[in-house]
């Protein structure tokens, strides 16, 4: 066992990290949030609240610190910052964390690659079936959908089990998963639908459970992405993905997808690791035509984000 799996460091002060930190603190765990994009020497205690689906509000004090306040970090490193920052993050963390295991919570395909390239010794990936939305600096609105599987990119089953038990709370449940690849793809395909259609329509996640027309569009995207998954020998079934998408849509009715939150806050989005990554894969296979709609939705989403960022 790693020397200090008792301390959990969560990278990125966002919707997911605030909720996770509150739940872990309330379970008596030692937690520190490390700022993802700020490296200003700050080290303070902050009060966060998570609004639950039944209206209850869970609150906790959490230490929030910049990475440059640590000379070394020893614990479980949970990455909940944006995936487009992983290249730089992998470089920055490499010199600080020694043999500490890293757990990636991010959506998308290939997001672990920067950590593999930097030769991190233990890399685990989680697939999140929860939604969290920032309401204000201190508050997030949290909705669990299902247990979140965690698997091994590099590491051991023994440590995976320990990590899962350390991260699991009654509100945010993780579970070990021996083979994660199919679920990563399944969630990425679901995200190709949510993270493009919802921002383009400026609508909440519940749209697919309310509108048969939106669900029709979802089916077309799922079918396109599945054809590429099959070329990669990922054997998923259309109906299973549709059912999961609908389950998430019901459970997160009223909740905004992260990409729409990003666009509204004039931030970069993760669409590059979703629709546009599948489009790149299709191109590599000589199958660009197979994902025309997925790619177009991805391009429009990217353009919308750029227009909001630049103001034109
Ligand atoms: N929100 C949700 O419901 C879900 C989110 N996810 C995934 O979880 C991950 C986190 O999502 P979420 O919490 O919503 O995201 P947020 O945008 O709320 O927070 C992400 C954090 O990433 C950090 N960050 C942003 N840009 C950079 C950068 N250029 N360099 C370093 N750090 C940066 C920021 O932290 P700081 O302010 O400390 O710099 C930011 O607050 C994403 O990959 C998302 O896809 C998955 C399922 C559901
Ligand atoms: C699809 C969804 C809503 C599920 O967790 C998600 O991944 C997100 O909000 O980014």
UniProtKB/TrEMBL annotation:
Gene3D superfamilies xrefs: N-(1-d-carboxylethyl)-l-norvaline Dehydrogenase, domain 2, NAD(P)-binding Rossmann-like Domain
Top-rank EC class of the record's enzyme: oxidoreductase
Residue stretches making up the Ketopantoate reductase N-terminal domain: 8-142
Pfam families cross-referenced by the UniProt entry: ApbA (PF02558), ApbA_C (PF08546)
Domain of life: Bacteria
Residues of the Ketopantoate reductase C-terminal domain: 181-287
Pathway of action: Cofactor biosynthesis; (R)-pantothenate biosynthesis; (R)-pantoate from 3-methyl-2-oxobutanoate: step 2/2
Alphabetically ordered keywords of this record: NADP, Oxidoreductase, Pantothenate biosynthesis
Function summary: Catalyzes the NADPH-dependent reduction of ketopantoate into pantoic acid.
Protein's UniProt name: 2-dehydropantoate 2-reductase
Organism of this sequence: Dyadobacter endophyticus
